[in-house]
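Please check these two lines:
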Amino acid sequence: MTRKQALELAVQALADNEKAVQVLHTMIDELPLNRWTEAAIRDSVEQFILDNGRPPLRTDFKKKCLPPHSVIKRRFGVTLQEWLDQNYPTEKTPLDELHAQATQDFIREYLRIQPVSAEDYNARRTHPSRGWYAIAKYNHTRRWRILLEKLNLPIYNNRGTPNSIPQLKVRVISDYNFEDEA
């Protein structure tokens, strides 16, 4: 039995369910599944949204359940990203806002961890937060100490306390006798 025959039997069995019969007829019309119709494309995207709770990204179209980029270009005459923006728009946060939010997350993590080095921070951070180097680039530097200075963060030592300016204590011990010169 072919897929088409099986679908026709299902149509007969579900004759009282109008919506199911309509979807089955659409599937029958698309068989054999060697081309992407507009309905099949939209259906695959809707199924992706149901399965993942979000519209697909461009990179998601490399998966088996979604059509390739070239199909969208050929079928609709626009790039995949343009088609997604027209049909499944998502609100995009401006890049500066994302960088500011990531920097605030870094500051919170830094104060929680109290790391003694960049490597210590990366090793102990929670993984949704970005690594220190990404935050440094957002703040136009490549150096750990300069990043901390720019963000007015304390610099911790191995004891977990901020470094303070070292106090120099000098004690002079002399065995020179001033009385002998007089």
